[in-house]
Design goal:
The protein is built from 9 helices and 19 strands. By secondary structure, it is α+β, with helices and mostly antiparallel strands. It is globular and about 60 Å long.
Amino acid sequence: MAETRTTDRQERKYDFHGRKNNRDCPEFSHDGYISINDLRNALQDDTNVQQIQSDLRNNARHILRYLTNILEYPNPVDFHISEVTHVTDEKSSDQISESGGFKAYGDDDEKFSWWSLKIDEKSIEAAEQRYLEKVFPNRSEEQKEKQDEFLNKFATSPAFHIKESRYGTVRFSFPLNEVMKTYKEQMCGGQEDPVLREYKTMFYQQEIMYVVLVHSPKHNERFDKFPRIKNVDYEGNQIVWKAQENQIVWKAQAISNAIKFKLNLNEENKMADIEPVYRQYYVWDHVCLAFHFDGVLKFTKEDLKKSKTHCELSEKNCLKRNK
């Protein structure tokens, strides 16, 4: 059975696209979601690479050096997230305050307002416990008490940076249920729930981003080719939408872009421990929500002010440089 699945993956045809994005960076995408392992295999195939624009081909090959097999590390790790964040620069922050909300930017179908998952220390601690319950389902209370924290040693990619950002110095943070409720009222007529779909896997030199498309049901026909994200958990999916809990479940495959530890799982005493290793660079993945709409997604001035905080700009950031 396993051999059949491997053969199916090898024969699967992928549809990759390459372009320079609005930040003038090489960007590749695949409609729908593709796992990191399948992406690694696909980019080793000349047939797939040739689909990407010729001027970006070398960059497509370049990502492979970050997709090498690595030492044992926590994978996958389930994060249950109920808060989202939109980070921007000071100028755009002033425009958000003036307009009373967030605008969607882009052309036609790709007109979005972009949000990220906000993952704090408590979310990492909870994910660690879920991971341990999965690998050691019958731990005793004594074993649980003896277990030292370890996931925070691996959860070090930009996806977990709360105090800094690659996108600017102003962060707006909202509970996910509040954003979804506001979107439903203003963009879905208040009657039907927003639709969530597996939109794209976007990848760069070291970064892999899974895009969740959020749209009004009136656009179902337009986006019908993208699989719907449902409240169903099955092996192999990257994202689950738990509507009743107002949570996104992200099954992270690569939580560190610079791995400094090896994970050891001791089956005998049902404990996990780590040991330092020579640093190895790897891809890192994360999730973004792309809300599709025209106009402005409005919030009260009080809510905007309350949600607004400042953060440091990451040394490696995505802001345009002056030429």
